[in-house]
Each structure stands twice: as structure tokens, then as C-alpha cells.
Design goal:
- The protein is an alpha+beta fold.
- It has three domains: 263 residues, Sandwich (Immunoglobulin-like), CATH 2.60.40.3140; 169 residues, C8orf32 fold, CATH 3.10.620; 205 residues, Jelly Rolls.
- 15% of the residues lie in helices and 39% in strands.
- It is built from ten helices and 37 strands.
- The strands form eight sheets. It has an eight-stranded mixed sheet with strand order 6-5-9-3-2-11-14-13, with no helix packed on it.
- The radius of gyration is 30 Å and the shape is globular.
Length: 650
């Protein structure tokens, strides 16, 4: 998926200067094919298609060596759903600027008509403390319109060389081409994601391309061009799309200034290990235990059982704090003040947990990770900004425990779902950091036990007990507590029109280390009555109501985050005067590579139908070549859950 190239460009000195010119497409030039295109032949479902896209990043010699990124695109709108691609939003960070915006719409009713964007319809918005956004909407849009727009961005930030280039997006592209001219006094690691063995069309040295103080420097000139780039369609159960989009990334390795002083930018993990405890706030405040010596209750510190004491410290911090919703991983923080206020950001809460555990005598490390939406951290070269989250790590009797105290519902040893993103980096004081491949517990189970009785007037009474464990329990607790028990029951009533809830109780709602238990009593009527026959759907509670996998082909993995189990046991008592006409067939279905198993067993005897159903997803990650099997497997689950039992009067 990811190919890495180390670009080593030596500083070259010469007398003359030379500039490389990139020719962008002629504005308003439309081919006969582009004009007549109604359905894109390589993707008939596409609502719009990029006809041509180009980008060029180079350094402007303006004292501070700004990077300029030029962007151009031409898009055909194929139907009304494609209109969303006519609104353009350009995010910029702090000192970055957008300029030279040009945009127009081309229509072909009664000849070629071009409508240009009025400058007054370009809007600048401050999104946050660090981010701004420039936005505009193309005018006079119709089905069949072709839009063109271009702009330039200037940035003083060199580390990612204008953020590289994305070849892939949510609509297909007929062509996407990217140029970069990199000065010889900057040295980058270049990584290509999902391009496999694609090599640049051009990769050459240009001598004397720009001034470097009192001399001139050479440049590397790159060109990548890809035809027929498919749309990237996001589907459920995936990490960040930026892990898989076809793209080029740049990471600054060394920088040489105009006086030929070279600074090392990309470091080794050993360098990071030293710097993070010396220069970063989270490292500086690691191990500050004095504050907690009088804050942790003595009865907790006097606990002799090592695991129980750790759980009590975890609960103490977890219950003391309310999370304010902020992360601020690399900003300075004050966990003492946060503790006194009982409110803190992610780092303040979890560093308090770490220092409290150290105070109690535990060897505790802090762990950096990247959340699912943030993408995978790079492993070959340390990029500290790839991480956006911190948790605690301890080991008790040889078992590793990773702890996050910001969620009051989180059991000891579990992590939020958004943290289930592969490997973590564990930092130990005065030792080398290391990668840890985190694997969530397998005990994520929903068990349903139900008894159903059908009266003479065909009313169905159902008693159901549902036991949730692991992430199943965590998710259910969150669903209930977010809206209150009363509103949760109302929501169940509204979502299940066929069922009338007579009674409902919840056990262990506030006991996060215990399974959550729901007990229901329902009343219902048969799904369908036809003459002397009654049609019943036996699945009153379903694990999946629809198949989440609908793509013809998925080119990136299915990442569930954790394994899942669903068990359903039902006894249907049949009233006198009725006989069983038809029941679903028994079946056993398995996924390849021990990926999961569906078992559906029915037994009808003595006016009772007994159903034993189990469904498992036994892997956290299913590769793209396993997708078709997973999709069919889920389809069989949906079919099984909707099959009917038919009873007939004798």
C-alpha cells in the first residue's frame, strides 16, 4: 500500500539560474468528448467526473522561501447529485494565504456560454484559532455543466511541502497530474500511498534553479500522472480514508539555510525519546507525584491486592474529572489546576492517572497513539505530529493494561473505540520507546434469551433477557445515558412498531465492570395472518438490520476495531389448535480463514419451536480480497433474521 522513497539532493552551486515552467490547460478549452459526456463509461454510477486535474508546488524566493501550490481542475456535472461538487472549500492554516482564485461554469444550451465567478461571491471564514476557510460556489449550474476553477496557496511551512498531493477523491478522475520542484537545500522523504509501483514520469535534476543566499541551488523536478483514477467510496467499518487514498506525502528530513548550515529535521526514535521528556509538556510533567501523595485516599493506597488497587486509582481519577471535550496533546497544561476544578482536557486527565499510578508504586508509561479518524502513524521515520492521543500503560503480573480515564463508562483495561487503530508507541523514562500492537478483548458479546407464548386470540407475549458484554455493553450504556432511560424506552417503542413494551428493567447500568442486562416484556401481533395461517418473524432483536457492505468491490480493508459475537436463543410455545406448517432451514455458514461462523438451528417438538442462533465476526480486519465473502455472509445473516415461521390451524 505504501512505498517510501528517500530523496537525497546534494546542494549544487553554479553561476546562472534556470526555471522550470509548467503549462496548465488552456482556460475554457472543451473537447467534443467532454461536451457530449452524459454517463462516464468507467463508472456509470458517478454523479460527476474530474476531466482534468493538475497541481504544481514550488518554492518562491521571497526571503523566507515560501512554497506556492497552484491548483487547477475541470469537472463535468452528470446529474443533480453532482451539484455538491460545485461548492469549493479551501482550508488554510494560520499564515497560509489563498490568492488568484478563478472559476467559471460552461453550459452548452444554444451554443457555448461561459459564466464567470464574481469576486464578491468568494468568502473568507475563520473556522478556529488556527484554521481559516475560503469558499465559493460556481454560478449557473445545470446538469451537463462543466466547471473550471483554479487558485494558488502560499505557505511558509516546509515540513510537508504544501501537503503533497491527493490523486483520489469521492468522484472518478480521468487524469490527475502533479508537479513538484524541490530545492536542493531541502531533503525530503517521499511516500506514495496506494500507488504501488507507480514511478514518476519525470525525476530529474535542474541545475541553478533558484537563488540560495549568495549562490544558486539545484532542484529535483518530479512529475506524477495517473489516468482513470476510480472514486473512493467510504463505507462503514474503516479507519481514516487518508490511509488508503492514492496520494504522495512529503516529510522534511534536513534543511540547509542560505549560509549553508544544515539542520536535521527528521530524527530517529532515540532522538524523539530524549526530546519528548526534555522539551514536550507531557514529558516534562510525567512522574510529578508529590501533588497526588495527599490527594489519593489512604484506603486506596493501603489496598494490598495489586490489580484491585490499580482499579480503584483508575476509578478515583475517572470519577473525579469531567472531560471538557478538548485534547491539546502538545500544548502546555496544568493538571493541578484541572484536578482542583474537577474538569480537564484529555492530557490533563490521563497524565493525572499516570502520575497517580506512579504515586501508588506502579511502573507506568505514557502511550501515544493516532485515533481511527486521524490515520495511521508513520513507523519508518518518527513524525510526532502523527499522534493525537495519549493513554496510560501498566503491567500487572505480566499482563499489559492500557487505560484511558476520560469516559466515565469505560471499564478498566478497555479503550474507546476510536483508539482501536493498530499499533501504539509506548514511552518509558530513560529507555527506548517501542511499538505495541494493541488487540481489544474478544469478549464483545450480545446474548439474547427469549420465551414467546401465543394466546388463542393470536396475541404474542414475549419475555426477553439481553446480556451485553465488552464493547456491546459500553455502546448500550452510552446510548441509554446520553438520552435517559425514559427517552430510551420511548425510542425503542418508536423504532419497533410491531412491539408494545409492557415492562422494562435495566441491571448494572452504573456498574461499568459488569455486563449490562436488559429485561423486556413485549406484546405483539403476528406479522401476517392469512385465512388459517399465522406468519411470525422469530427475531425480535437483531444484531444488524441491514447489510453494511454494499459496494461491488472494496479496495481497502474492513476494519471492525474489535471482534463481535451475537447469540440468540428463543423458545416459541405454540397454542393448542395450531400446527407448524413451515420453519426456516437449519444452516451453518463459515467465512474463509476462520473469519466467522453463522449457525442457525431450529427444533420443533411438543408444540415448541426452539431456536439457537449464533453469529460471529472473528477477525478485526478483513482484507479487500475477503470483502466479497464478508458481503455474502452478511447477506445471509439479514436473510436468516427475516425468514418466517408459519403456523396453521389444525
Amino acid at each position: 500500500m505504501i512505498k517510501k522513497i528517500s530523496v537525497l539532493v546534494l546542494l549544487a552551486l553554479s553561476i546562472s539560474t534556470y526555471s522550470q515552467k509548467v503549462n496548465f490547460p488552456e482556460w475554457g478549452d472543451i473537447s467534443e468528448y467532454e461536451k457530449k459526456l452524459v454517463v462516464y463509461e468507467k463508472d456509470s454510477s458517478a454523479h460527476a467526473v474530474v476531466l482534468r486535474e493538475m497541481g504544481y508546488a514550488f518554492v518562491k524566493e521571497s526571503g523566507g522561501y515560501e512554497i506556492i501550490k497552484e491548483y487547477y481542475v475541470k469537472i463535468k456535472i452528470l446529474d443533480k447529485e453532482g451539484f455538491k461538487h460545485t461548492t469549493v472549500e479551501i482550508p488554510t492554516y494560520k499564515k497560509e494565504n489563498v490568492f488568484r482564485i478563478k472559476a467559471s461554469t460552461i453550459n452548452f444550451n444554444n451554443g457555448k456560454k461561459i459564466t464567470s465567478l464574481d469576486k464578491s461571491n468568494i468568502f473568507e471564514t475563520k473556522v478556529s484559532e488556527n484554521w481559516n476557510q475560503t469558499s465559493f460556489t460556481l454560478p449557473n449550474i445545470k446538469v451537463g455543466s462543466i466547471i473550471e476553477y483554479s487558485y494558488k496557496i502560499s505557505t511558509p511551512y516546509h515540513h510537508t511541502f504544501a501537503d503533497g498531493w491527493l490523486f483520489q477523491n469521492d468522484i472518478p478522475k480521468i487524469n490527475s497530474t502533479y508537479f513538484a520542484k524541490i530545492p536542493g537545500f531541502w531533503q525530503y522523504h517521499i511516500s506514495t500511498v496506494s500507488l504501488l509501483d507507480t514511478e514518476p514520469r519525470q525525476y530529474r535534476l535542474i541545475k541553478n534553479c533558484m537563488n540560495a543566499g549568495h549562490s544558486t541551488a539545484s532542484c529535483i523536478f518530479l512529475e506524477y500522472s495517473i489516468d482513470n483514477v476510480p472514486a473512493f467510496i467510504e463505507e462503514d467499518f474503516s479507519t481514516s480514508k487518508y490511509n488508503y487514498l492514492k496520494q504522495i506525502k512529503f516529510e522534511l528530513k534536513t534543511f540547509t539555510d542560505s549560509d549553508i548550515n544544515t539542520s536535521k529535521i527528521t530524527t530517529t526514535w532515540k532522538d524523539v525519546d530524549k526530546e519528548i521528556f526534555k522539551d514536550y509538556p507531557l514529558g516534562k510533567k510525567y512522574g510529578k507525584t508529590k501533588f497526588f501523595e495527599n490527594k489519593i485516599p489512604k484506603e486506596i493506597l493501603n489496598e494490598t491486592n495489586e490489580l484491585i488497587k490499580a482499579k480503584k486509582i483508575y476509578s478515583f481519577i475517572q470519577n473525579h474529572y469531567n472531560w471538557n471535550g478538548n485534547y491539546y496533546l502538545y500544548k502546555d497544561f496544568n493538571f493541578k489546576k484541572a484536578f482542583e476544578n474537577g474538569v480537564g482536557n484529555m492530557v490533563e486527565i490521563n497524565m493525572s492517572l499516570i502520575n497517580a499510578l506512579i504515586t501508588a508504586g506502579y511502573k507506568t508509561d505514557f502511550v501515544l497513539l493516532s485515533t481511527r479518524k486521524n490515520g495511521f502513524p508513520r513507523k519508518l521515520h518518527p513524525v510526532i505530529s502523527d499522534f493525537n492521543y495519549m493513554i496510560a500503560h501498566i503491567k500487572i503480573k505480566g499482563k499489559d493494561y492500557f487505560l484511558d480515564a476520560i469516559d466515565k463508562n469505560m471499564p478498566f483495561g478497555m479503550l474507546p473505540f476510536y483508539c482501536t487503530n493498530g499499533e501504539f508507541r509506548v514511552f518509558e523514562k530513560d529507555k527506548n520507546s517501542y511499538w505495541f500492537n494493541f488487540k481489544p478483548s474478544d469478549n464483545n458479546v450480545t446474548n439474547v434469551y427469549a420465551i414467546a407464548d401465543i394466546s388463542k386470540n393470536t396475541e404474542i407475549k414475549i419475555k426477553t433477557r439481553v446480556v451485553y458484554m465488552g464493547y456491546s455493553a459500553l455502546n448500550k450504556r452510552k446510548n441509554i445515558q446520553d438520552i435517559s432511560v425514559e427517552k430510551y424506552i420511548d425510542k425503542l417503542d418508536n423504532e419497533n412498531e410491531e412491539l408494545d413494551i409492557v415492562n422494562h428493567t435495566i441491571e448494572n447500568l452504573d456498574k461499568r465492570d459488569q455486563p449490562l442486562v436488559e429485561v423486556f416484556e413485549f406484546k405483539s401481533n403476528p406479522n401476517f395472518i392469512n385465512n388459517n395461517s399465522i406468519y411470525l418473524k422469530p427475531f425480535l432483536i437483531k444484531n444488524f438490520k441491514t447489510n453494511p457492505f454494499t459496494l461491488n468491490k472494496r479496495l481497502y480493508p474492513v476494519d471492525l476495531g474489535y471482534k463481535r459475537k451475537f447469540k440468540y436463543n428463543l423458545v416459541f410455545n405454540i397454542p393448542k389448535g395450531y400446527r407448524i406448517e413451515s420453519v426456516p432451514k437449519n444452516r451453518k455458514i463459515s467465512l474463509p480463514n476462520n473469519g466467522g461462523k453463522l449457525i442457525y438451528l431450529l427444533n420443533n417438538k411438543n408444540n415448541k419451536i426452539t431456536i439457537h442462533f449464533s453469529f460471529t465476526l472473528d477477525k478485526t480486519i478483513y482484507e479487500s480480497h475477503e470483502y466479497s465473502f464478508l458481503k455474502k455472509y452478511m447477506s445471509q445473516l439479514i436473510i436468516a433474521q427475516n425468514e418466517m415461521i408459519i403456523l396453521t390451524k389444525e
